Amino acid sequence: MNPIIGESLDRVDGTLKATGGARYSAETPIPDLVHAVLIGSMIANGQIQAIDTQAAEAAPCVLAVLTRLTAN
What we know:
It is a single chain. The protein has 72 residues and is mainly alpha-helical. 15% of the residues lie in helices and 0% in strands. The protein has two helices and no strands. The radius of gyration is 23 Å and the shape is elongated.
């Protein structure tokens, strides 16, 4: 049996979090950070006939559009 279960614990960062003074990892600036978005199929069992990525590639700030044809 774990002796911590059911016991209250002191949260050393609790006051900072409750008052808005805590710093979270998402608030740390990271130079050249990029994000990815995965888009899954809306059809469970199908075959890809064509992939048109022109609109996605033309969108502002898009660095790359990866498909099964571009991933090596």
